[in-house]
């Protein structure tokens, strides 16, 4: 547990340009305090001291405004930047080197009428290694965010996305990176400044589809006119022969 906390401090130093020292992080960073509370609560949770684990988690939430269920599974070097409003559900799984910004929700699916049947079931997201989730984003349900992927600020993700892509919008749309090497670099808030606009991209796709359908209609009309002309010509020929 203490080795993990040391790694977490180093991760804050690497990814937060405002961090000046390990002591500053340990004393003044609510994101780090929330991770400390989680590490303790999770240790208790794994030993079936569930009520005490939830109490430690609750104390952490009161002091940091960050809610991490002690049953969640979190890897090494997690960074919760700013942090207020972050919610991480019970069956969430987070890989190594993940970055979460404020107001991020890793939420579960809607409860069924028989809530007891959902105990122990996977209801929350899985984040691969190196994932960045921008502020205000919601990742909902037992879906997977592939390693090194980014979710832009205020996006809503309800379907799994592959590795090494960016997802933005409501609902989130996947944007393939122009340069995979550039994509691997750390991007604050998970939103690339030079990325394509998903709305414009959708409009372009609709325009292409309309053009394709228009061409198809013209082809069908042309075929129908040719067929009608051929029938007319055939009918005229028969009349001349009959006459």
Q: What topology emerges from the helices and strands here?
A:
Layout: H1 2-15, H2 22-28, H3 30-46, H4 50-64, E1 67-68, E2 73-74, E3 79-81, E4 87-88, E5 93-94, E6 99-101, E7 105-107, E8 126-127, E9 132-133, E10 138-140, E11 144-145, E12 150-151, E13 156-157, E14 166-168, E15 173-175, H5 180-183, H6 198-242
Parallel strand pairs: 1-4, 2-5, 3-6, 4-7, 5-8, 6-9, 7-10, 8-11, 9-12, 10-13, 12-14
Antiparallel strand pairs: 14-15
Helix pairs in contact: 1-3, 3-4
Describe this structure in words.
The protein is an alpha/beta fold and 243 residues long. 42% of the residues lie in helices and 15% in strands. A 6-stranded mixed sheet has the order 3-6-9-12-14-15. Helix 1 (2-15) runs antiparallel to helix 3 and helix 3 (30-46) packs antiparallel against helix 4. It starts with a helix and ends with a helix. The model has no long low-confidence stretch (mean pLDDT 83).
Quick synopsis:
With 243 residues, the chain is an alpha/beta fold. The protein is built from six helices and 15 strands.
Q: Supply Rg.
A: 27 Å
What share of the residues lie within helices?
40-55%
Strand content: 5-15%
What are the low-pLDDT stretches, counting only 5+ consecutive residues below 50?
none
Largest sheet: 6 strands, mixed
Please give the alpha-carbon distance between the first and last residues: 103 Å
What general form does the structure show?
A: elongated
How do the strands line up in the largest sheet? 3-6-9-12-14-15
Q: Report the count of strand segments.
A: 15
What structural category arises from helix and sheet content?
alpha/beta
What is the H/E string? HHHHEEEEEEEEEEEEEEEHH
Q: Tell me the number of helical segments per DSSP (H or I, 4 or more residues long).
A: 6
């Amino acid at each position: 547990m203490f080795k993990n906390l040391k790694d977490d401090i180093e991760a804050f130093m690497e990814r937060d340009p405002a961090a000046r020292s390990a002591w500053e992080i340990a004393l003044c960073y609510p994101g780090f305090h929330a991770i400390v509370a989680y590490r303790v609560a999770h240790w208790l949770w794994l030993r079936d001291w569930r009520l005490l684990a939830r109490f430690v988690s609750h104390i952490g939430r009161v002091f940091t405004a960050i809610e991490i269920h002690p049953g969640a599974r979190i890897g090494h070097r997690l960074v919760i930047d700013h942090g207020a409003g972050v919610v991480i559900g019970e069956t969430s799984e987070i890989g190594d080197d993940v970055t979460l910004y404020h107001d991020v929700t890793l939420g579960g699916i809607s409860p069924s009428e028989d809530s007891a049947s959902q105990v122990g079931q996977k209801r929350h997201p899985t984040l691969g290694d190196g994932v960045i989730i921008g502020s205000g984003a919601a990742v909902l349900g037992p879906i997977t965010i592939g390693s090194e992927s980014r979710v832009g600020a205020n996006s809503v993700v309800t379907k799994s996305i592959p590795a090494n892509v960016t997802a933005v919008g409501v609902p989130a749309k996947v944007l393939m990176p122009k340069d995979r090497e550039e994509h691997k670099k750390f991007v604050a808030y998970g939103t690339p400044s030079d990325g394509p606009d998903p709305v414009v991209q959708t409009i372009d796709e609709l325009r292409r589809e309309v053009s394709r359908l228009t061409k198809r209609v013209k082809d069908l009309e042309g075929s129908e006119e040719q067929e009608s002309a051929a029938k007319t010509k055939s009918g005229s020929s028969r009349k001349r022969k009959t006459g």
